[in-house]
UniProtKB/TrEMBL annotation:
InterPro entries membership: Restrct_endonuc-II-like, tRNA_endonuc-like_dom_sf
Source organism, top-level taxon: Bacteria
Gene Ontology molecular function: any one: nucleic acid binding
Residue ranges of the TM segments: none
Source species: Pelistega indica
Stated name of the protein: VRR-NUC domain-containing protein
């Protein structure tokens, strides 16, 4: 079995948390060719929507998006 990455652990724990609080969530399927700006999770809780990007460690930073 392959070793779980830090980011995979974060995603696993977030899924458990979303389920625990009764949030609706999904992970958009980008098949490795995702557009920039597509979050790892789209979550809805109490009528509020959130896009959440996961990183494995604090040194991993999200990329600043610019408009063309």
């Amino acid at each position: 079995m392959a070793k779980m990455t830090d980011e995979a652990r974060v995603k696993r724990d977030l899924k458990a948390f979303f389920n625990e609080i009764g949030a609706y969530w999904f992970m958009p399927a980008t098949h490795g060719y995702g557009r920039s700006g597509v979050p790892d999770f789209v979550v809805c809780k109490d009528g509020h929507f959130f896009g959440i990007e996961c990183k494995g460690t604090p040194k991993n930073k999200t990329t600043i998006l610019t408009t063309p």
